[in-house]
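Page 42, continued from yesterday. The earlier attempt failed because a stray header line got pasted into the input along with the sequence. Redoing it now with the clean sequence only.
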Amino acid sequence: MSEQTMIIPTWDDVKIAHERIRPYIHETPVLTSRFINELTGAELFFKCENFQKAGAFKVRGACNAVFGLSEEQAAVGVATHSSGNHALSLSYAAGQRGIPVSVVMPRTAPQAKKDAVIGYGGKIVECEPSTSSREAVFADMVAQSGADFIHPYNDPRVIAGQATCSRELLDQVDDLDTVIAPIGGGGMISGTCLTLSSIAPDIKIYAAEPLNADDAARSFRAGHIIADDAPQTIADGLKVPLKDLTWHFVSNHVTDILTATETEIVEAMKLIWKRMKIVMEPSSAVPLATILKNPDVFRGKRVGVIITGGNVDLDKLPWL
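This time it went through. Structure tokens are written below.
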């Protein structure tokens, strides 16, 4: 799909999405830590999407897509592929509307996320832990069901929904200099770019990525998408590659993509659990890990940090 044929969501789409999804989401809180501020030399404002319905920001985009369907489309049901949070968020949204939902998930996805999908009424079809396997299994499933495909991130309805997170953040915190969020496929970052470029274009946007799955950072430096098929990282929500729609936002609006090692991600995750008593998943710790690693970039700045989710497998914590 070329940029000429892509449907690129607009600020009007974000405003419509926010009104549409309000009954089904939380306006999540913003928390701070004096200790972490002193440690980083910056003022950090943590937007806690780990407290969101279904435990992750992805419920915003999922609800916007599901509740934007016509009655005829909804009757057929919805389907997606996901490592976890979009799967359980779409299952939540479909359950709220009372329509069927099927998801393709890697067999290695955290059991906590699989349990949540099932708990919300979703049907799981397992695949191997690679992008190619996920997409192939999904294509077979959709061909049989005819369900509406709601992509985890490369979908204008989803991006418009995710953009409501940073819209709330700007209402909650004044005078931000920077916003940073994790990047995998780029749905949250694209939504952040959409909001900030529309109403706060002076705020810089950084993306944070595991070094072990740094295809977005390499894409950013190369000027074109570089897609890894099956990277290995504890940040299971950040293993997927950019696609054309998310690349449009990343390439046009992101200031830089910073990376963190597995050890740095674990240490940042432990720091937030210990100091802020916030349960977050490894993917959500990557932004703080990169802030700690790059103090000169953030020192003296007011920084919005998006904690994307809290769906942790407590039996497989990364430091055990």
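Notes: The chain has two domains: 11-56+158-316, 59-149.
Reminder to self: strip header lines before submitting.
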